Amino acid sequence: MTQRITIFGYGAVGRPIAERLAARGDRVRVATRTRPADLQAGVEHQVCDVLNPADVRRALDGSAQAVLAVGFPYDARVWRTAWPRTMHAVVEGCAEAGARLVFIDNLYQLGPQTAPRTEDMPLTAGGEKPAILAEVTRIWQGARARVPVAALRCSDFYGPGVANSHLGAFAFGALAKGRPAQLLVPADTAHDFAYVPDVARAALVLLDAPDADFGQAWNVPCAPTRSPRALLTMGAGVLGKRLRLWAVPFAMLRPLGLVYRFAREVADVGFTWDRAYVIDGGKFARRFGFVPTPFEVGVPATVRRFAEAR
Q: How many Cβ atoms are within 10 Å of 297's Cβ, its own excluded?
C-alpha cells in the first residue's frame, strides 16, 4: 500500500531518501524553499520555508509520514534560532496532520564521551551547537505523546556526491583531481563515519517500522572505526595514487577560529576530534538486522563519483 511521505530537505541525505521511496512506489513530496534542479521525475515539490509553521502545515497536508532532513549553515549563530523554530514547526505540523516523523539527527548533544556513544547517554549543556541540539532533542521528546517521532542519529557523513563533509570535496574530491587532500581535523584520530546510502536505507527502515519503534533515538550503525588518514589512503589507492595530505593540527583549531569562522565552529565540537569518536549502532543493528556498508565498498564508490565529476 503506497503512502504520501513529505521530506523536508533535498540535500545529501534527503535526496537519496526521496529517490528510494519513489523507486518503490511511494508518493513523495519534497518540501524546500526553491525547487531543486535535479528533482527526480515523479517526485512532487512543495515550496516551504521550515521556519514558517504555515508552510510546514501545507507541506504535510495529506502525508502519513515525514522526514526532517534539512541542513543549515554550519554556524551556531544560525542554529540558535533556526533549529528550535524548525523542530517546533515540524512537530506541531505533524501533530495537526496526524503524521509520524523521522528526524535525521546527529550526536553533538551528547557532548564529550570516553565510551562509544549510545542512545541513552544524557544530554549535554556545554558548547554552542551541542546545547542547541540538546534543546531540539527536548522539543521532540516533549511532543512524543502527540507525535510519533524517531530520531536517526548519524556520525559525520561521507558518500557518493557528498561534497560538504570532512571526507568530501576537499578530501576525496581533491584526491580525484590530483591534488593533496585537506583536513581541518586530525588525520589520525579514530572517527566513525556514516555512509549516506546507509543513512537513507536506515530512514526507510524506520518509515516501515511499527509505532512501537518510535518515541526514541536510534544510532545509525557505521563500518568499523578508522581514521581519516586510513580512509584517504584507501581512496588514493583506488585512484592508483600515493596519498598526499595536509591537515590542521588540533591545537591550531581554536587560534585559527579567531580569523576563520568555520574553524571556530569545528572547535566548538572539538570533543569529536580530540579523542576516538565511536558510535554504538548495536541497538539499530539488533532490532532491524542492519549491516553497514564496509569502507571497502563505500570509499571506492565515493572516490569514483568524484573522479567522474571532474
A: 13
Asked whether the CA dihedral 62, 86, 15, 141 is positive or negative, the reply is negative
Question: Which pLDDT score, from 0 to 100, does residue 310 have?
Answer: 76
pTM for this predicted structure = 0.97
For the record, the C-alpha cell of 91 comes out as 512537530
What confidence tens digit (pLDDT) does each residue in 111-123 have? 999 999 999 999 9
64 φ/ψ angles, rounded to the nearest 5 degrees:
-90, -25
CA-angle at 100, arms to 150 and 73, nearest 5°: 60
Query: Torsion over CA of 92, 100, 139 and 220, rounded to 10 degrees?
Result: -150
Beta bridge partners of 109: none
Angstrom distance (rounded) from CA 91 to CA 174 = 40
DSSP 57-80: HHHHTT-SEEEE-----S-HHHHH
- Please give the sequence-ordered ranges of beta strands (E in DSSP) within 27-148, or none if there are none: 27-32, 44-47, 65-68, 100-105
Strand order from edge to edge, sheet including 65-68: 44-47, 27-32, 4-8, 65-68, 100-105, 149-153, 216-219
CA dist., res. 221 & res. 193, Å (int): 9
